[in-house]
Amino acid sequence: MATTSRRLTARTRRIGRDDPRHDRPLLELLPGGAPLSWVRAGEGLVGWGCAARLSTSGAARFADAEAWWDELSGRFDVDDEVGLPGCGPVAFASLAFAADPGESALVVPEVIIGERDGIRWITTIGEPDAEIEVAPVHPPGTVSYSDGRLSSSGYRHAVTEAVRVMRAEDPELAKIVLAHDLVADTSEPLDERFLLHNLAARYPSCWTFAVDGLLGATPELLLERQGCAVRSRVLAGTVWPREGRDDDELAAELLASAKNRSEHAYAARSLAETLRGFCSELDVPEEPRVLRLRNVLHLATDVEGKLADSAGGAAGLLSMLAAVHPTAAVGGTPTRAAVRRIAQLEGMDRGRYAGPVGWIDTGGNGEIGIALRCAQVEDADGGWEDDSAAPGSGRGGGRVRLFAGGGIVPDSDPDLEVAEVEAKLLPIREALEGVR
Ligand SMILES: C=C(O[C@H]1C=CC=C(C(=O)O)[C@@H]1O)C(=O)O
Q1: Has residue 235 been placed in a domain?
Q2: Does a structural domain hold residue 1?
Q3: 306-342 per-position pLDDT tens digit
Q4: Which residues make Cβ contacts (< 8 Å) with residue 32, sequence separation at least 6?
Q5: CATH number of the domain that 150 lies in?
Q6: Model ipTM value
Q7: Which of 176, 181, 232, 235 to mutate to test the pocket of ligand 1 (most atoms within 8 A of CB)?
Q8: How far is ligand 1, taken at its centre, from the CA of residue 354, in Å?
Q9: Positions marked active-site
Q10: Which neighbouring-strand residues pair with 249?
Q11: Positive or negative CA dihedral for 40, 36, 404, 399?
Q12: What positions belong to coiled-coil segments (predicted)?
């Protein structure tokens, strides 16, 4: 719940060209500790400190978050001389995938540095030390991997079972998105900025995010709102590099694959059908395009709309998120039945993986992605969750849990699905290992 009930002051000032913070990459301004980030191609927001925070869970998590943010927004005295989306107070948000279990978090930083259209600014909330020194970034040392809650072979088994269920037991189920996790232990304490810097360097077209210990670089935008304009980038359908195939051949293969096209169509339709209810205009391309990343290629549909101003006010971003989440990019089709099956087949808590992640401001603007290709910090204080299982327990290293998943349809091949999640785990593994 809110950590304060007093009035708060927020001051936003432009950072001038003569200020050393003007030209440094945003992520390099993070001082250390628990970073907050939403950065793509050098623009976005970074933050630190905590002026207010909400932890919530359950089916009402979106409504709780909206009520909390509305109430808190009313308590700010804002002095904003820049006036762009993301200026003034901002809450970084990371919501759980499922109603049960899973904890959601909203964090309002004390300091936010943002950049949009070449304009850089700083927002301070209260009287924090905005000139705080940036501590050197520490590499995590050696990285060792072990099974998470759903090992590779467990994942293969879950995929086989999902295919059986869809073919034989419940033909109404057309798609189930399953995920696999992997535990990484580091010999040194984890400096979250190390991961963020490496992810942003190799995946500049993705959104490099960090909220309350969930870090990653996602290529998927669930919903962006700027005034009455909304935008989404739906992804589903994947190929990955193979010997003897160049990127153009892989892209052609992806576009021609009936299996990937059907996986994609479910996801694009699930987003568009729900979002249409909030919009007076919605543009949904009939054909997907191909999004090329260095580890995978995806089918992508970019959706754009204009919000309907019903009853004097367009819908809030958090209400829209409650309606569109989970799309069939991370849930399945039909949604409710698929989500029930996910819990049965995975038998693990996804936490905030595949949940909405990003930021919202007090003007109703925000950018929210889907938390994919990510790592959940499990022991930020250096302690182990399960001492008996922790190699080198007590040595003060770090532990993260990595996640990646894929859409399963009745003609999915379990071996290919295992290869797909391995390809999707590469960015976060390489970031941990220091590959740039
Ligand atoms: C569920 C994930 O990816 C989604 C997004 C893009 C492509 C996907 C696919 O081809 O299965 C998934 O729908 C993940 O990366 O964990």
Answers
A1: yes
A2: no
A3: 999 765 566 799 999 999 999 999 999 999 999 999 9
A4: 134, 135, 191, 193
A5: 3.60.120.10
A6: 0.99
A7: 235
A8: 9
A9: 175, 220
A10: none
A11: positive
A12: none
